[in-house]
């Protein structure tokens, strides 16, 4: 990362997003500095993936703006790890990253090999992606996201489905990237890892950030001993209670576990994550959580 | 860092760029200059070929597509061998293969094309690719080019190979008759092969368009199958029914034939690769209209693919 790069790596202002008559995000703003790890946590369906799509420049918000200052270094601006990364069968891990490397200026086979080593896949570089475990596929997705040294890294549930050791390894890689000056925005339910590795935690609920601050600040504000407890306090839930959200206003529609189908008609084709996916026009948002 | 600590700047920050796509890779702020325009074109072309290469490699590594390709090749060889064509000359061979190509090429195009873009959408790679500043033209063009190279190579290669049967299987030409060499020549057969390649490109474009416009495998398959059925049977059947009932006037037939890729292809083959059957010219519609019809299908399909592949999002880099 260049020394003269601007301090703010990502700035989002007043982001609004709706799907049909469901408001998912309402006036969301955040700013992430170089080297900062910003974690976005929130109940299922609170709009985390939708927000990350917008921050990555993949989806256009209904209102507001996202800006990533141009960096002097790096072959791309934003790296993105989707919630369920998947790659074409029949290609090895090396082939897969090699393909993406060809789309970037100045990234070559040596960078691909170094990236595979960095994410811990150097030993299986020539194995077909179809034979990789779910965790390895996620690490390959992380490798794709960091290729070209983007100034901003956006990770959607990178630890989902990984064992605790893999989660720690993954967040360790994220921490290393941040130490090198990369701004990281990560949506995650692994609250212990978030508590350890995040500089700033944003709790997304009811369309906006219900709280934000360093993990220590959130613990102090909520008078709790762990981020998990603080999270429950902030989203006003009890342990064992469903926290599925269905857009703004979902906070009032908490249901008990086992009766938590808080989806709208528009969610027919989604796997439910952030709750809302329309097939209409261009407003598709990938679900899954 | 507070979430609201930065109120400065326009609320349209990051939207200054007029491009409706993902930006491109040029570092120049002056997108209107000639040099940056050339750089952009070079970037688009470079990405297009990278993606086309991946498509080709995907096809080579997909056993189901290889099996279909082999089945097509064996079937064409079988028709040429068993029919009258291979032993009767180039024009009889063309007539033997014409219907076969009309039916099988749309089916092959469906197999090669209907998941081409949808597959990347479903794995999430479409979203990922957009963070690599890949433009829509590069992506759709690359997918189409890669698949088209494979499919056209299969169709053209197979047809040319069976064309080689003719000199070997055709009985010796009697020397006591005057023969019009132009009536049955390799040139006519090459015309048929070239037109078959064009027909292949058109129906593949249509299936790639469907792949870009749909969001589920079920929808894509249903639409692609419906397209193939309409091309092979539906449109012609409707035309015949319309003519028989008098709904379609006979003088408008040439235009209507040009509207269907199959009819347009058939018309072009009959007029330029067959020409005369039984001493009479073949009624094959208007050649120019037929060519225009195929071109319209090709352009329209690829335009739909470009339009629908992903939404326009303003570049976020400022």
From TrEMBL, chain A:
SUPFAM superfamilies: P-loop containing nucleoside triphosphate hydrolases (SSF52540). GO terms for molecular function: ATP binding. The keyword Disulfide bond does not apply. It holds the Pfam family ABC_tran. Residues 262-289 have a biased composition (Acidic residues). Residues 10-231 form the ABC transporter domain. Residues 245-289 are annotated as: Disordered. Keywords: ATP-binding, Nucleotide-binding, Transport. Belongs to the ABC transporter superfamily. PANTHER family: ABC TRANSPORTER, ATP-BINDING PROTEIN. This is ABC transporter ATP-binding protein.
């Amino acid at each position: 990362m260049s020394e003269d790069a601007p301090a703010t790596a990502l700035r989002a202002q007043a982001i609004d997003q709706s799907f049909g008559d469901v408001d998912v995000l309402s006036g969301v703003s955040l700013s992430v500095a170089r080297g900062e790890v910003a974690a976005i946590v929130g109940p299922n369906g609170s709009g985390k993936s939708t927000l990350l799509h917008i921050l990555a420049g993949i989806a256009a918000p209904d209102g507001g703006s996202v800006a990533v200052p141009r960096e002097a270094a790096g072959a791309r601006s934003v790296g993105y790890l989707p919630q369920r990364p998947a790659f074409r069968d029949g290609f090895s891990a090396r082939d897969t990253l090699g393909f993406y490397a060809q789309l970037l200026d100045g990234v070559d086979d040596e960078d691909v090999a170094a990236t595979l080593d960095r994410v811990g896949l150097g030993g299986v570089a020539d194995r077909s992606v179809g034979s990789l475990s779910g965790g390895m596929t996620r690490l390959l997705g992380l490798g794709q996201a960091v290729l070209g040294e983007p100034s901003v890294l956006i990770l959607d549930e990178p630890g989902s489905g990984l064992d605790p050791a893999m989660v720690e390894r993954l967040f360790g890689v994220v921490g290393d990237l941040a130490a090198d000056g990369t701004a990281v925005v990560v949506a995650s339910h692994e609250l212990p890892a978030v508590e350890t590795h995040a500089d700033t935690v944003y709790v997304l609920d009811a369309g906006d950030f219900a709280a934000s601050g360093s993990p220590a600040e959130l613990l102090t504000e909520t008078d709790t001993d762990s981020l998990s407890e603080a999270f429950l306090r902030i989203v006003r839930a009890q342990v064992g209670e469903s926290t599925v959200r269905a857009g703004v206003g979902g906070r009032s529609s908490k249901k008990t576990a086992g009766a938590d189908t808080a989806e709208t008609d528009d969610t027919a084709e989604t796997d439910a994550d952030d709750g809302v996916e329309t097939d209409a026009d261009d407003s598709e948002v990938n679900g899954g959580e | 860092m507070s979430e609201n600590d930065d109120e400065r700047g326009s609320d349209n920050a990051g939207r200054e760029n007029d491009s409706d796509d993902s930006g491109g890779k040029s570092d120049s702020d002056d997108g209107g200059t000639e040099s940056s325009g050339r750089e952009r074109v070079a970037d688009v072309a470079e990405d297009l070929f990278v993606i086309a290469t991946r498509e080709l490699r995907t096809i080579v590594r997909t056993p189901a597509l290889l099996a279909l390709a082999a089945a097509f090749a064996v079937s064409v060889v079988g028709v040429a061998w068993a029919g009258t064509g291979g032993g009767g000359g180039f024009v009889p061979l063309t007539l033997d293969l014409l219907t076969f190509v009309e039916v099988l090429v749309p089916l092959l195009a469906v197999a090669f094309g209907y998941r081409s873009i949808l597959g990347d959408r479903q794995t999430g790679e479409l979203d990922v690719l957009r963070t690599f500043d890949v433009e829509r033209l590069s992506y759709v063009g690359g997918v189409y080019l890669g698949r088209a190279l494979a499919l056209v190579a299969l169709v053209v290669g197979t047809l040319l190979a069976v064309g080689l049967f003719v000199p070997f299987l055709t009985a010796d030409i009697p020397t006591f008759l005057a023969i019009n060499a132009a009536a049955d020549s390799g040139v006519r057969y090459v015309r048929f092969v070239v037109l078959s390649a064009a027909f292949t490109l058109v129906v593949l474009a249509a299936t790639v368009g469907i792949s870009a416009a749909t969001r589920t495998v079920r929808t894509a398959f249903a639409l692609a199958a419906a397209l193939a059925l309409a091309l092979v049977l539906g449109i012609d059947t409707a035309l015949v029914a319309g003519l028989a009932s008098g709904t379609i006037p006979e003088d408008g037939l040439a235009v209507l034939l040009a509207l269907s890729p199959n009819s347009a292809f058939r018309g072009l083959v009959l007029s330029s690769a067959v020409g005369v059957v039984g001493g009479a010219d073949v009624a094959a519609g208007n050649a120019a209209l037929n060519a225009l019809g195929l071109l319209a299908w090709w352009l329209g399909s690829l335009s739909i693919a470009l339009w629908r592949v992903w939404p326009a999002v303003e570049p976020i880099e400022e």
